[in-house]
Specification:
2 helices, about 100 residues, alpha+beta, globular
Length: about 100
């Protein structure tokens, strides 16, 4: 299933900048960045629970925001893209 992860981390102090870096790193391990604070991740339910738990443990719920959008398995009909920075097909073949 395609999960869209978005976050907004307050970076007015060193702790916030550290949280932002850690949140971005976790998201990069599970998907591709499509906007500055937006990641597309193709995950199964176990992976989703894992990444959700990991990200929830990193943010400060009094200062930061974290959102998960579950677009399901038939997400290709639900996503439209216009402009630069075309994303790659996560589930497509990888040619090295």
């Amino acid at each position: 299933m395609l999960i869209l992860i978005t976050y907004d981390v307050r970076t007015t102090d060193v702790g916030g900048r550290r949280r932002l870096s850690r949140v971005a790193k976790v998201c990069q391990n599970f998907g591709q960045r499509v906007q500055n604070s937006v990641f597309e991740c193709v995950l199964d339910s176990t992976q989703f629970r894992h990444v959700k738990h990991e990200l929830e443990s990193l943010i400060d719920v009094n200062r930061d925001s974290l959102r998960f959008y579950n677009l399901g398995d038939k997400y290709k009909r639900k996503v439209e893209h216009f402009g630069i920075k075309e994303s790659y097909d996560i589930e497509g073949p990888l040619i090295l």
